[in-house]
Each structure stands twice: as structure tokens, then as C-alpha cells.
Amino acid sequence: MALRKFFVGGNWKMNGNKDSLGELITTLNTASLHDETEVVCAAPSIYLDFARSNLDPRISVAAQNCYKVAKGAFTGEISPAMIRDCGADWVILGHSERRHVFGESDELIGQKVAHALENDLGVIACIGEKLEEREAGTTEEVVYAQTQVIAENVKDWGKVVLAYEPVWAIGTGKTATPEQAQEVHEKLRAWLRANVSDDVADSVRIIYGGSVTGANCRELASQGDVDGFLVGGASLKPEFVDIINARA
Ligand code: PGA
């Protein structure tokens, strides 16, 4: 099995201001962070520059979304080139809030993935089933279909992290159990093996997101196919350091 570097992303969502994010950044900059963990903080787009100028260089910066073309009359949108211009290296795409609050389709997410990768951004590509889909027993079907559209738009998997985020676990305090997370991650890896390649299946980081906290991160991190986390609420608190160090 290829060695997959543990990956922890903090998704600040639409939270904070320069004061509170500045405080968080000071906490992260001065903390002892496991050097075997890749750490990325996803700032609101208006604070990308602020985050990049203030965060220690060992922490990467991500945008939380971007558009599918380089420039033009798309009021309110930002391009991968702009994200790179602010010194950020990553973008989160397909987050469940983009899918379900803003109605982004699989097709649009796929186009964004392709354009971000062409412009040399790393992509944290999010997938995950809703509660009713899990209850109807269609979790696999849903996450495979979402992964398929992403896969059709990826040429270089070296720049992609797949984030499994069950929608029912996001911001609800209802974390997937380590067994539930492992089960889906294992199946996603098998899907990659069958539909992409052995090499990609062995090397792509599949991270878990949904109510990850300092208290539950270690047990989740001990699962063989859980290669890190995408963290919302807890990424705004000092316990984010404990999550970064979950495998230390
Ligand atoms: P949460 O959010 O950790 O607050 O559940 C996770 C996410 O949306 O990435």
C-alpha cells in the first residue's frame, strides 16, 4: 500500500473576521503540529490574502469554491487563477452546502474540478449522501455517482483529495462512527481500483468530514482507509490542533 500523507483541512465556511481569524492563525502558527500531517485552511475568499499573508508557510490555504472558467462577466465569482494569485494552492469543490444550499449540480462541480486542476490548484472534492439516501440504502449508489463525475474530470489524481462527508453528519454533532466511515472509504477505494487504477486507489487520500472534533478524531484516524479530515466547526477552535495531531 502506498504511503498516504495524513491530510487535515479546516473549512472556515462563512465565519470570522480579521480579529477572530487572526487569533486562530496565531494559535495555529505557534502550535506544535505533527510534521507528517498536511494542513490546509479554507478561508472565505475575501480573506484568502489575509490568511496567506499571516499563516505560517507550513500551513496551506484553500478557497471554498471557484468558478469553471478563467474570467468574464460572472458577477460575484472567483477564478482558480485569482486564488493562485493570492498564494492559495487548494480549492474545496462540491461541498454539500454548495450542492444543497446553492443548488450546484454534479455537472457544474465536474466542470469546476477540471478547470481548477488545469490551473494547477489542488482540489478537495466532496461527496456524501443525505440522511434519506442512507436510510433508503442508497449510500453507495450516491457516492459512486458523485465520484464518477469527478473522475471524468480528473487527469492528474496527484492533486486531488476525496472528502467523504455524509450530509447528515455535517454541522449536526452526529459523527459517522469509525466503522461507518471506514466502510464507505473502503468501498470508495475499491471503486477507484475498479474504475481508475490500482495506483490511484492506493495513493489518493480519502478524508472524512462531518462533526469531527478533538474528542472523536483519534478513533476515526485509526481506521485504515481514513486518510485525514475536513473539519468545519472545530477548525475555528484551538482543538483543531488536536485534530491535526490525531495520528501523532
Ligand atoms: P462540521 O463541517 O465539521 O462543522 O460538521 C464539516 C464540513 O462541512 O466540511
TrEMBL record:
A GO BP annotation: gluconeogenesis
EC number: 5.3.1.1
Pathway: Carbohydrate biosynthesis; gluconeogenesis; Carbohydrate degradation; glycolysis; D-glyceraldehyde 3-phosphate from glycerone phosphate: step 1/1
Keyword annotations from UniProtKB, A to Z: Gluconeogenesis, Glycolysis, Isomerase, Lyase
HAMAP family per the UniProt record, alphabetical: TIM_B
Subunit record text: Homodimer.
Function: Triosephosphate isomerase is an extremely efficient metabolic enzyme that catalyzes the interconversion between dihydroxyacetone phosphate (DHAP) and D-glyceraldehyde-3-phosphate (G3P) in glycolysis and gluconeogenesis.
PANTHER family registered for this protein in UniProt: TRIOSEPHOSPHATE ISOMERASE (PTHR21139), TRIOSEPHOSPHATE ISOMERASE A (PTHR21139:SF17)
Stated name of the protein: Triosephosphate isomerase
Species: Oreochromis niloticus
Gene that this polypeptide is encoded by: TPI1
